[in-house]
Amino acid sequence: MKIAIMGSGGVGGYLGARLAQKDHDVAFIARGAHLAAMKANGLRLDDKADSVIINPVNATNDPARIGPVDLVIFSVKVYDAKTAIVEMKPLIGPNTVVLDVLNGVESHAWIVDAFGAPHVLRGSIYISSHIAEPGVIVHETPGVRLTFGAFDSFARPAAEALHAALLAIDVKSVLTDDVESAIWSKMVMLTALSGVCCLARLPISDVLAAPEGAAVVRRAMEEVAAVANARNITLEPGALKAVQGFDPANVPAVKPSMLVDLERGKPLELDWLSGAISRFGREAGVPTPTHDVVWGALKPWSLGPPH
User: Fold this and answer.
1) Which of 56, 57, 120, 220 gets the highest tally of CB atoms within 10 A of its CB?
2) Does any domain span residue 45?
């Protein structure tokens, strides 16, 4: 497949490097120091299982230099999504599909508005990876799981081809007809851990090691589940299993990506995580006091360090 990675950070960089390793024609859309390092030294993926260097690497900040592709893996930060959708128009041909793996539950609608439902695959990815330094992606925990589905039968052949390609790079790929359930099930854990870890300025294992911290996380998860229920969304079995009790010994000492961004002085995806749950809760008449506090307390940091 001819693939463009729109957003070559922890998620896109990992998937792109692994797909390029399997001889797919992969182009990376990046910017700034990360792009410069990739052009100079290639893209390095540090992974305990199997590290790899893609060099030379096809990397650019101009999608027009790539032209139409079979697949766009859309993996920018949510706050950059609307700008990136406009920028990636040169990548979209009559048979192109876009896989949306952004955090939150709202970005797919923006892509559908831009390119039409037949061109959109919507996904939910579980991965712990980030840019450690320009040109270097670090994957921190074993295993990657990606659940995705098509909005329209037009995209089904591309979805099946992608499913096979993901299995070949040892991604636990699940092609589903109920991707809404998968995305909201991830939202349950993602918003809770992202918000509470950012408030505590601590990795997941440290937050959950304190009974009080684990209790706050459980309440945050339950609020997301209540909002999902109000929107008639059925969560995956086990989505709320963690509220029954955490075992800190089995929790990795990693940081949610939003905490990594906070520590680096970058903007946060806050408005589309805890902020979204607060908004949706108000619309549905569902109380979300934990996410209200997270949203309010972190809001001054959402565009970077307050001035």
Assistant:
1) 220
2) yes
Report how far residue 142's alpha carbon sits from residue 38's, in angstroms, rounded to the nearest whole number.
25
Q: Tell me: do 144 and 201 sit in the same domain.
A: no
Query: What is the per-residue pLDDT for 239?
Result: 82
CB-based contact 91:67 (threshold 8 Å): yes
The Cα–Cα gap between 280 and 290 comes to 14
108 and 88 in a common domain:
yes
H or E segment to which residue 6 belongs: strand 2-6
Kindly report whether the peptide bond that precedes residue 203 is cis, defined as omega within 30 degrees of 0. Answer: no
Residues 89 and 128 in one domain: yes
pLDDT at 65: 97
Which residue has 């909002």 as its token pair?
227
Same domain membership, residue 118 and residue 232: no
Peptide bond into 306 cis (omega under 30): no
State pLDDT tens for residues 269-291. 999 999 999 999 999 999 999 99
Q: Within this chain, do residues 202 and 234 fall inside the same structural domain, yes or no?
A: yes
**135 and 268 part of one domain:** no
pLDDT digits over 23-59, tens only? Answer: 999 999 999 999 999 999 999 999 877 889 999 999 9
Asked if the structure places residue 306 within a domain, the reply is no
Residues facing residue 129 across a β-bridge: 139
Angstrom distance (rounded) from CA 16 to CA 24: 9
Residue 305 counted as domain residue: no
